[in-house]
Amino acid sequence: MSDLQAAAADTFPKLLLEMARRRPEQPAIREKEYGIWQAWTWREVENEVRALACGLAALGLGRGDKIAIIGDNRPRLYWTMTAAQAIGAIPVPLYQDSAAQELTFVIEHAGARFVMAEDQEQVDKMLSIRERYPALEQIVYDDARGLRHYQQDFVNAFEDIQARGRGYDAANPGFFDAAVAQGNGDDTAIYLYTSGTTGQPKGVVLNFDNLVKTAANGIALEGLTAEDEVMAYLPMAWVGDHLFSYGQSYVAGFCVSCPESSDTVLHDLRELGPTYFFAPPRIFENILTTVTIRMEDAGWIKRRMFKYFMALARRCGTRILDRKPVSLADRLMYGLGNLLVYGPLRNTLGFTRIRLAYTAGEAIGPDIFDFYRSIGVNLKQLYGSTEASVFITIQPDGEILPDTVGRPAPGVEIKVAEDGEVLFRSPGVFVEYYKNPEATAATKSPDGWVHTGDAGYLDDNGHLKIIDRAKDVGRLNDGNMFAPKYTENKLKFFADIKEAVAYGHQRNYCAAFINIDLEAVGSWAERNNVSYGSYQELAAHPDVLNTIKSHVEAVNRDLSEDPRLAGSQVRRFLVLHKELDADDGELTRTRKVRRAFVAEKYESLVEALYSDQDRVYVETEMTFEDGRKGTIKADLQVIEAQTFGQSEPLKMAG
């Protein structure tokens, strides 16, 4: 797109019209349904959005109104965003797995009058919310299954709204184009609500300039084109999906594909073979865990060949990917490994065509990071936030370091405050927190510098290294720095550990709760004929506890080598009797630990870690998959782990 065209196309509806004019027959979006991929071209998407926008306008949605959007990644839900923006309304995507009570706050706070719901499950949530919030006037649904007998006049099918829109468009032929032309880059594009780790979610207001310019900068840096393909499977309420699956698609013109369901993502990924992929570390960890489990179940010849070529890949694979010098012998053997192991593995994972992959949100383990890069997947870490429209730093090609998050992204400035907090300024800086001027003023300075809340530093190469959340960085009683998130992330690098929560601020030492990964540990149990009846029983198995202890001590040895973080070694830990769960309030919907809530809920367990107890009894209320609540009881073992590089004796007083 030329600079002149880019300047004119400063909103997503304008970009849609431009793509429909320039690439009318090129696929814009796909969806898999009943096992078949269906595609819509840019011209067809324009027609779908035009009919929907006119239908919503006929129904009463106007400029400045808000429309909530809830469901899995579906073309019609993405079209709703564009249709709303075309007539000056503001989309407010919601996390689809949230309970009605959680959604009520966001809908009321945003003042949403309309909602686009994917299916019966989401419609039922909205009906229950409407009983408490009658200002929710209209509910439109995509999937009609189960909704045949819903007779409320304010509940309408997507097709019916579009049919009304086509009539409205025919009666008002200039309406849609005039409404799109009226939009400007500084108009509000969307409200994205934060996950609310420490309180109620905040509504981040982003305008079109924030998103379009940031999308364009990322596209220019990485050389993305209209020929690229992306799979949209992450929550639509998350800023990463909004920029990668929506914003960059409209700016670059590439195709976005929606999987059949959340359960078929990995299968659909293999079928599709995208060229551009984003996943949080947990996804990459889960995929690697699956690979590891399968290889343990393979025959001895395959296992031996896999281990040999993976050792070779660890030695020279990342150097080959970064186009650095490698001996001819290693290069030839790597080529053979690519034929026998790496290529088939990438194909099995759906990574054959990937030329660019990102991970962000949490730190990714160096071994996991190097695994993907060593088999030829160009995986990079980036650092971002909703308030930045995603991009703060990106790892440049040829400068991929596993322990940093790269250099400032195009157009981004970074500085580190005296207290170690990272600040940034960029074209993507959010406008404000909706209805929260106090939080806006506390986060964004008048000259545009944004406080990230993260502690970090710039290394000698100008790369940013994030240590922890600034508010979470504390001090042990001996004065050593305590960085809980850094310790937790290193623990989660092990496939057997799914979650960890570390404590230590104003204590004598660091201690931790640990969740096992049921899939990885369950696979070990199956291979070793270890029977168990529940997560709780497996988590308390002596061999599992010994394995977790070895992982904790490996992390301690690693931490001891960094004088700034040696104090964050874990001296005592316990393996929790249940998984931390968003339904129990212990995690956010983006699976971030609500640290203060967990500390309060399990106060007796925290205190046991700072006592001379070697066992502690606990009763916990939990939510089952069907929504029922029950109580789980356990007698947990408190385990002491070896620490390194500290000669003072262990002090039990907290």
Q: What does the model show?
A:
With 654 residues, the chain is an alpha/beta fold. Among the domains are: 3-205, Rossmann fold (3-Layer(aba) Sandwich), CATH 3.40.50; 474-640, ANL, C-terminal domain (GMP Synthetase, Chain A, domain 3, 2-Layer Sandwich), CATH 3.30.300. The chain has 22 helices and 29 strands. The strands form eight sheets. Strands 4-3-5-6-7 form a five-stranded parallel sheet, sandwiched between helices. Helix 3 crosses helix 7 (158-171) and helix 5 (100-110) packs across helix 6. The longest helix is centred in the middle third of the chain and has 22 residues, at 300-321. The chain is globular.
Major β-sheet strand ordering? 4-3-5-6-7
CATH homologous superfamily of one domain - what is it? ANL, N-terminal domain
**CATH architecture group name of one domain:** 3-Layer(aba) Sandwich
Query: Can you summarize the main beta sheet?
Result: 5 strands, parallel
- Compute the separation of the termini in Å: 62 Å
Helix-strand category:
alpha/beta
Give the proportion of residues in helices.
40-55%
Which descriptor suits the 3D outline? globular
How many helix segments?
22
Could you outline the blueprint of secondary structure elements for this entry?
Elements: H1 3-8, H2 12-22, E1 27-33, E2 36-41, H3 42-59, E3 66-70, H4 75-86, E4 90-94, H5 100-110, E5 114-117, H6 120-132, E6 138-141, E7 155-157, H7 158-171, H8 175-182, E8 188-193, E9 203-207, H9 208-222, E10 229-231, H10 239-252, E11 255-258, H11 265-272, E12 276-278, H12 281-297, H13 300-321, H14 328-349, E13 356-359, H15 366-374, E14 379-385, E15 390-394, E16 407-408, E17 413-416, E18 421-425, E19 432-433, H16 437-443, E20 450-458, E21 464-469, E22 474-475, E23 481-482, H17 484-492, E24 497-503, E25 510-516, H18 518-527, H19 535-539, H20 542-560, E26 570-575, H21 595-601, H22 603-609, E27 615-623, E28 629-637, E29 639-640
Parallel strand pairs: 1-11, 3-4, 3-5, 5-6, 6-7, 10-11, 12-13, 13-14, 25-26
Antiparallel strand pairs: 1-2, 8-9, 9-19, 14-15, 15-16, 17-18, 18-20, 20-21, 22-23, 24-25, 26-29, 27-28
